[in-house]
Amino acid sequence: MTSPEPVDVVLIGGGIMSATLASLISQLEPDWTIEIFERLGDVAQESSNPWNNAGTGHAALCELNYMPEGKDGSVDPAKAIGINEQFQQSRQFWSHLVETGALPDPSSFINTVPHMTFVTGEHDVTYLKNRYEALKDQPLFGGIEYSDDSRRIAKWAPLLMEGRRSSVPFAATRIEAGTDVDFGALTRQLFAGAIEKGAKLRLNHEVRSLKKQKDGTWRIGYRRTVGRSPGTVDARFVFVGAGGWALKLLQKARIPEVDGYGVFPISGQFLRTDDPEVVAKHQAKVYSQAAVGAPPMSVPHLDTRVVDGKPSLLFGPYAGFSPKFLKNGSILDIVTQVRPKNLFPMLAVAKDNPGLITYLVRELLASRKAKIASLRAFMPTVDGSDWHMITAGQRAQVMKKDAKKGGVLQFGTEVIAAGDGTIAGLLGASPGASTAVPIMLDVLKTCFPRDIDGWEPELRRMIPTYGTTLNDKPELADEVLSRTASILGIAR
């Protein structure tokens, strides 16, 4: 069945990105019609599900990959500061929704969990000290602490130091005001708010085709996954927030902007424990350095998670390989993405990243005993019987054309939009969920250039620092951090 009148906005995918965009648009244009298509029976079942990600409120407080070491040993805080600035926009928007009652209980999706970095070996200890020196005077990183004293680190995270030999140098940093975010709970609540304002959610509806009409609208062909009855709907604007499947759908739309793009799927696993005695000894998210050849999203970390109000610990990720672009995808995904214009960039990526292939093979062959041994590097007294393995979400890392190398493997997220702004999609992974608000603001700026200036007063009401930065304004940074922390009920 085809809608007689085009809807204003169709969102494909029931994750945090579509939920954030639905919430923003329903606030900015309450009269616009919005329809959301999700192929599964509920929202937030892929990367936004709390057990499919680490739940770190990514503010670059502990993630070393946002501050790589230069060849001369220097560290540049610019990217880390940029990530933190983005997370502050997300915090402001969530705070606005809490104040207006759209998010009634912030503790259901965000909780204080200190963010730490822990390294061993002389080289990494030196690097971490340099990183600390580069960040300690940055307003958005206020309160960062550094220590190479075992007693002090043991107070921060006892499991890191129990049974650890002192023959190898080690060091840690900590910021007490880190956060754990249940993006599944947040996604559900954002969609609930949008639906209350009139948005329509179609669960068990899989989008099968996207075709541009002569009048500029998009005809979206779908099929019910229950009953398999087909249908179509016309839309003035389409956003594809379908994780790894976003590439496939943008290819179906035949927009030239997606030419040359491919994605490399990486699956993962975490060790998890719910043992109250073990969980009680570790209240932190502790990140370290990635293994040589490992993709940045595979940085090992020992994390406190709070899901449905109950704390657990996760350690990982252990990388694996699946040809699927989603956990509930098709084994043919990696093949069906291939096009004449992205084949060469993908082959170039394969040629230039032998370390990644070696790393993945090593991870695939690793036994449970070997995986417990890697956890033991963080937690020397680990008892393997307390931990069980869970499968994490499927990540799709972006491959794209490069003038010099032919193709590059890109860390992060990227918005692909048609030249006329009628369709856009998101490719990539981390730090996606934590920076969903600024990413969706970029979508609005790119796709609605005639409207964005008129929306600015409302955007500033929802996100007071919209259009500006905080780190170069210490007093404003302190005011905003204190205000959002108070509203969200988290540490400053």
Automatic annotation (TrEMBL):
One term of GO molecular function: (S)-2-hydroxyglutarate dehydrogenase activity
Q: Does the record bear Magnesium in its keywords?
A: no
* Pathway annotation from the record: Carbohydrate metabolism; tricarboxylic acid cycle; oxaloacetate from (S)-malate (quinone route): step 1/1
List, alphabetically, the Pfam families matched: Mqo (PF06039)
To which protein family does this belong?
Belongs to the MQO family.
Example GO biological process: tricarboxylic acid cycle
Say if the entry is tagged with keyword Flavoprotein. yes
Name what cofactor the protein needs.
Answer: FAD
Keywords carried by this UniProt record: FAD, Flavoprotein, Oxidoreductase, Tricarboxylic acid cycle
Quickly give the catalysed reaction. (S)-malate + a quinone = a quinol + oxaloacetate
Which InterPro entries does this entry report, sorted A to Z?
A: FAD/NAD-bd_sf, MQO
EC category name? oxidoreductase
Q: Which PANTHER family match?
A: L-2-HYDROXYGLUTARATE DEHYDROGENASE, MITOCHONDRIAL (PTHR43104:SF2)
Record-given protein name: Probable malate:quinone oxidoreductase
Native source organism of the sequence: Labedella endophytica
**Enzyme Commission no:** 1.1.5.4
